[in-house]
Amino acid sequence: MTALQPVRLLRTTMSATVCAHLREQIIAGRLKPGEALPEARLGALLGVSRVPVREALALLEREGLVTFDRRGTARVCVLGPEDVRELGLMRLALEPVAARLTCERLTPEMEAEIEDNLRSLHRAKALADVTRLDLEFHRLILRASGNGRLLAAWEGLAAQFQLVMARLHRAVERRTRETRTSTHRAHAELFAALVGGDPDRAEALARKHATSWFTEWETLHAFQANEEASA
Known about the structure:
The chain has 231 residues and is mainly alpha-helical. Helix content is 75%, strand content 3%. The longest helix has 25 residues, at 81-105.
């Protein structure tokens, strides 16, 4: 066991911690689209060496939240309307199928987890919690579908899904102040179809829910170049 080198494990844990912190800051909009993420400065701000920062940035690049320019400088990803459209199409490809499968395979344990998510969403106060629970609701349905490859494809885009959700939620909240209520209503409707074992309705509701992205970003202009700067 001593050959496993605990120091390396500690460094990996630190990289994961840095990654989680930067992911949270990007999704919250505190790190702006296109903003440079220099390793040395981030390390100094977070009190760590450049190594875990470099590893964290590499992980975030794989998640689609960070890109590297020609000079090798990491920058927060910039999502435009076409990116949101592509992500929305991926949701349309994955989530309705998962909803249909879940109707056939929903276990009492998974049903309880989804119901607990709905209760937490109903009680949520912070908009960031609404976004987190929104993403988790869809993740639970993908898990409940029992299709590992479907889940893996969705998980590969989950961070980008959350980034889009967060920005849309902020835009909706500025206009309506009803983000939590409308999200809970849509999720509760889909949950009822899943529990009721109605695959046609569950698939249709999942498709409707995913399609709402297209109308929301067009109506709210949430992915214009200056949206986050003015938020």
